[in-house]
Amino acid sequence: MPAIEIRSRDEGHRFEVDSGERILYGGLRSGLDLPYECATGTCGSCKARLLDGELEELWPDAPGKDLLKPNSGDFLMCQCVPKGSGAVTAEVSKPVARLQADAHAPGWAKGVVIQAPRYLTHDVMAVDVQLDRPVRFEAGQFMALEVADVPGTRGYSMVNYATETDRLAFVIKRKPGGGVSEWLFGGDRAGTPVRLFGPLGTALFRPEMDTNILCIAGGTGIAGIMSILQRACDEQYFDNHRGDVFFGVRTPADAFYLDELSTFSRKFPQTLNITVAFSDQPADDAFKRKHGGIHFKEGFVHEVAGTAMADRLQGLTAYLAGPPPAVEASVRLLVMSRVSPANIRYDKFS
Ligand code: FES
Question: To 10 degrees, what angle do helices 324-336 and 301-308 make?
Answer without folding.
Answer: 20
